[in-house]
Amino acid sequence: MAYRPPSQHILKVDTRLVEIGVVVRDPRGHSVAGFTKDDFEVTDEGKNRDITAFSVESAAPLAPSAPPPAGPAAGNPAEMAHDPVSRRYLALVFDDVSMQVNELALAQTAAWRFLKDGLRAGDHIGLFTMSGTQNLGFTTDFPTLSDALGKLHLSGRTPDASGCSTMTPHEAYLIANRIDLSTLNVKVAETARCLGLHVPPDVIRWTDVLPEPAPGVMGLANAIWQQVLQSSRAALFTIDRVVDALAQMPAGRSILLASSGFLSGTLEQEMDAIIRHALHAGVVINSLDAKGLYTGAFSAEKGGGGHFDERSVANMQLISSASKEAPNDALASLAYNTGGLWFHNSNDLDAGFHELGMRPEVSYLVGFSPGEKSNGKYHRLRVRLKAPGHNTVQARLGYMAVEPAPPAAQRERRLDTLAAADTVVDEVPGALTTQPALSNPAERGVMAVFHVDIKQLHFAGTDGVRQQKLSLIAILLDTNGNFVTAKEGVVMLALKEPAFNGYSPDGMNFMLTLPAPPGSYRLRAVMEEGVDGKASARTLPVEIR
């Protein structure tokens, strides 16, 4: 499975200074420079706030440090002096969990055209996925990017409910969070008709002792919503990890998130933490709705296993648009609140990738100190230019005013500590080596080989069965120590005496394969046994050809 090193960032919600990333755009969408602190006005829940922190971020190429040398007449492109090129780091993040097959295919094509036409000297592009299984570290190599982009595929979806009680994720959200009583009554009536029961309409209330089959409907809604929440938290976790990766880069840090959306209701604090993390790291998040244009049509056959009536149809029509828009809330919020762009309601994904792939030339960071004590509520923000005009202001829409909670005590695994270090540890009998990945000739990579001398390994167990657990981690780093990709594996051994005696002479080998483009790398390999807690770790140079 994919391995994600523990974050080096501790995200704390500190409302003593609220920071707001701001981009001012003209009517043509271009960022506008030249504004100062005195040009902006900030309101917090309608109250004016004094701006106590202000800075300007410019993405323009650096001016040459010395005048260009004298040479042939200007106008000869081959002999003209060039300004140094400023680097930028763009993370393309594909939601390989929520997208449909056709949505991913269209997004891949649009991204390929953007890379083909939009890359320039100094651009470093990384490819990341929500599942974390198809990542490519930042590179300037277009063929490698194109190859990795073409191999993207869907990695799983939230299973649909089937049977009498069918329910979409949005319906589950409305019912599990007690938002829409009408939807609960409709789903109960559908299920009752499917089961041949009679339930009078509009008699169920949130405070009632629920009659059959209402408990089953509520239980299904809660189960589906928990699945959706888990998937959405995983998506936010991935986005936060990408922000982590970009935070290590020197400048020009942005994300282009292509997704069909995911429900984020009740995850406001997690969203706010990511936004604050991105603001502190100077990362702009741009979001693209891969669904494109859609209609309000719905598939009636899916309603209640086919056991629907006029009320079912009316309710489906009522919430159809909201069910399409709700998954977009997270995408829009991440973009607007980090000073990014939100591309939606368009099938022209080519234009979307080109519009979002270019970072604003000028942005501003505005900060203020709230006067009141934190009240634990969401505060709406508004940033405006004092002088009227045709420019528009992009800024975060609000923040959570909660007191910073003390960090929860987390037991750090020795495995993670060793993975983050560069020391050599030799406690487990065996060896850590590498060899070229050979499983797929078309996919380059490296294989971490964990050799265990089992005749010297301490086992537990009874009834003639030797039991042991081996935890393995392989991390691929570039020559600068930046994270590229990683995997973690667990091996459970239960060896009877004949098997143990058969493996003892040569020992046992376990492998983790890491795909990566050609180049020079360092591989960090860590192995820990579960009986005595002994471990081995070392860092090995790797050349992928």
Keywords:
545 residues; alpha+beta; six-stranded mixed beta sheet; five-stranded antiparallel beta sheet; 11 helices; 22 strands; 29% strand; globular
Write up this protein.
The chain is an alpha+beta fold and 545 residues long. The chain contains eleven helices and 22 strands. The chain has helices spanning 101-118, 142-150, 169-176, 181-195, 214-247, 268-281, 310-325, 328-337, 349-357, 414-420, 497-503; strands spanning 18-25, 40-44, 47-49, 51-58, 88-94, 123-129, 136-139, 253-259, 283-289, 342-343, 362-368, 377-385, 392-395, 398-401, 425-426, 430-436, 445-452, 465-478, 483-496, 508-515, 519-529, 535-544. The strands form five sheets. Strands 7-6-5-8-9-10 form a six-stranded mixed sheet, sandwiched between helices. A five-stranded antiparallel sheet has the order 15-22-21-18-19. Strand 2 (40-44) and strand 3 (47-49) form a beta hairpin. Helix 1 packs antiparallel against helix 2 (142-150) and helix 3 crosses helix 5. The longest helix is centred in the middle third of the chain and has 34 residues, at 214-247. The radius of gyration is 27 Å and the shape is globular. The model is unreliable at 10-15, 60-85 and 295-305 (pLDDT under 50).
